């Protein structure tokens, strides 16, 4: 009885927020009610699909992003690896099955400002004229080669080849440590487009975890940059929307923005250091896209929590809010995981196990 009332409540609220809701039922008891066997949850297909606790496929695929093309196919893009500058995987549905593609280089030419090495965290959007834009981070050439800059590149189809935009990087900020981890966001309320990215202050390298624990500790702000309809041309300057605190450790990074069906904005971001167990996924919520973003009280995912993963981070939301991709440590390096997002009435954003 209680279950059917809560199901009814869920169904009603579903039409308000547009997400699968676990209203009135604590997340933990909801999952317990499914009577799965904990020992098999991490190794088996759960409810006809892969669990968030299991990699989408067993391969190094770090800092993933996710995109649905016009034909309905889903694509994920990742940091260099497996012999590719930009890695790409494909699936017929967001929860899989995912397949790593052995495709021609998506970004065969490097922009003039980059070395062509250390290409990180690519993300793809389709803009209003039907073309595709890739945002990526690449090592700066010349005197600032210890830093990265953010590039844009465009293509006529999702698998490219992508042609780097001419001229300077989209963002670099070499006095503050460079810039990395760009992703695009179209605000459904205003139709405006933005790019969020991180000023890579920890690469200035004072020392300690991720180079940014020993004094002087440098800021690593997440910036919001409005762009024109082409997704590439900047409109005005960037606005900082979140920066690291003592509690975050060396940094915040890997921003991804999503507008919830109730009109508010969720900013997913990682903190800790990517190369140890402190790396984790967090979120913050705002009423306006420019903030202020209010941090959730607890990390969304961290090492050893109910998912049982190590260093879960680098999360990115699908533009339609249906899913979140992220990476966690695995024998191959950092593997991609994918999960359905749940948002409850208390602004608690969790993943379906
Ligand atoms: C460069 O980064 C610093 C943060 O370290 C920030 O205050 C500043 O606004 C940034 N400048 C530009 C042009 O993005």
Task: Provide an overview of this structure.
The protein has 353 residues and is mainly beta. Helices cover 7% and strands 34% of the residues. It has three helices and 22 strands. It has helices at 2-17, 27-32, 38-41; strands at 45-46, 49-50, 65-68, 74-78, 87-91, 99-100, 120-126, 132-139, 148-155, 163-164, 179-186, 193-199, 222-227, 239-242, 252-259, 265-271, 280-286, 294-295, 313-317, 323-330, 333-343, 349-351. The strands form six sheets. The protein has a four-stranded antiparallel beta sheet, with no helix packed on it. It has a four-stranded antiparallel beta sheet with strand order 7-8-9-10, with no helix packed on it. Strands 11-12-13-14 form a four-stranded antiparallel beta sheet, with no helix packed on it. The longest helix is centred in the N-terminal third of the chain and has 16 residues, at 2-17. The chain starts with a helix and ends with a strand. 2-acetamido-2-deoxy-beta-D-glucopyranose is lined by residues 173, 176, 199, 201, 219, 221, 238.
What attributes characterize this protein structure?
3 helices; disordered N terminus; 7% helix; globular; binds 2-acetamido-2-deoxy-beta-D-glucopyranose; four-stranded antiparallel β-sheet; mainly beta; 353 residues
Q: What order do the helices and strands come in, and which of them pair?
A:
Blueprint: H1 2-17, H2 27-32, H3 38-41, E1 45-46, E2 49-50, E3 65-68, E4 74-78, E5 87-91, E6 99-100, E7 120-126, E8 132-139, E9 148-155, E10 163-164, E11 179-186, E12 193-199, E13 222-227, E14 239-242, E15 252-259, E16 265-271, E17 280-286, E18 294-295, E19 313-317, E20 323-330, E21 333-343, E22 349-351
Antiparallel strand pairs: 1-2, 3-4, 4-5, 5-6, 7-8, 8-9, 9-10, 11-12, 12-13, 13-14, 15-16, 16-17, 17-18, 19-20, 20-21, 21-22
The site of 2-acetamido-2-deoxy-beta-D-glucopyranose (NAG) has 7 residues, from loops.
């Amino acid at each position: 009885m209680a279950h059917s009332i809560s199901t009814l409540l869920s169904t009603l609220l579903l039409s308000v927020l547009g997400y699968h809701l676990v209203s009135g039922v604590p997340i933990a008891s909801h999952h317990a009610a499914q009577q799965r066997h904990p020992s098999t949850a991490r190794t088996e297909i759960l409810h006809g699909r892969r669990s968030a606790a299991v990699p989408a496929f067993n391969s190094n695929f770090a800092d993933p992003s996710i995109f649905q093309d016009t034909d309905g196919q889903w694509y994920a893009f990742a940091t260099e690896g497996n012999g590719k500058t930009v890695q790409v995987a494909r699936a017929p549905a967001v929860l899989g099955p995912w397949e790593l593609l052995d495709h021609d280089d998506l970004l065969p030419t490097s922009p003039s400002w980059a070395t062509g090495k250390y290409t990180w965290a690519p993300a793809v959007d389709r803009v209003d004229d039907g073309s595709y834009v890739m945002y990526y981070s690449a090592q700066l050439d010349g005197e600032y080669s210890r830093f990265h800059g953010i590039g844009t590149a465009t293509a006529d189809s999702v698998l490219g080849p992508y042609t780097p935009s001419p001229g300077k990087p989209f963002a670099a900020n070499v006095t503050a440590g460079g810039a990395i981890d760009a992703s695009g966001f179209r605000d459904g309320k205003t139709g405006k487009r933005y790019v969020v990215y991180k000023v890579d202050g920890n690469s200035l390298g004072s020392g300690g975890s991720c180079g940014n624990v020993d004094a002087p500790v440098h800021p690593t702000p997440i910036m919001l940059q409005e762009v024109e309809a082409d997704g590439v041309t900047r409109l005005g300057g960037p606005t900082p929307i979140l920066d690291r605190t003592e509690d975050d450790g060396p940094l915040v990074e890997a921003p991804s923005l999503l507008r919830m069906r109730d009109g508010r904005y969720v900013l997913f971001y990682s903190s800790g250091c990517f190369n140890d167990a402190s790396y984790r996924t967090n979120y913050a919520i705002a009423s306006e896209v420019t903030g202020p973003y209010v941090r959730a009280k607890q990390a969304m995912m961290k090492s050893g929590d109910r998912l049982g993963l190590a260093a879960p981070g680098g999360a990115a939301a699908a533009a339609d809010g249906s899913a979140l991709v992220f990476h966690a440590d695995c024998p191959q390096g950092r593997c991609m995981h994918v999960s359905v997002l749940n948002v409850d009435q208390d602004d608690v954003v969790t993943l379906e196990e």
